[in-house]
Amino acid sequence: MELTLPPKVTERAYSRLHEIGAGESGKALRIAVEGGGCSGFQYDISLDDPAEGDLVLDGPDGVERVVIDEVSLPFLANAVIDFTEELIGARFVIDNPNATSSCGCGTSFSM
């Protein structure tokens, strides 16, 4: 898998990071891909410190950041990281064009 375009982060996702004070605390939203889940791969989304080798995607104000480790990066080429609020809850979501299928909850996918 080659990285054609880095993932894109929506304004809504950066806005949510701002609301929870992630940037002020020095934390970034970490998106990682791990083996597991009901479809073969799963997303691990957490607040974390950026590490050496991470791709850092800065928000419009330069305070909020999203980080992706170099192992996960090829799995997220051209993906869109967003934040959604629905009746069942609010969460960060990933629209990943590389996924050939995903589970109902959206946290697990196959390629």
From TrEMBL:
Transmembrane segments: none annotated. Coiled coil: none annotated. Residues 8-106 form the Core domain. It comes from the Bacteria. SUPFAM superfamilies: HesB-like domain. Pfam families: Fe-S_biosyn. PROSITE patterns: HESB. This is Heme biosynthesis protein HemY. It comes from Sinisalibacter aestuarii.
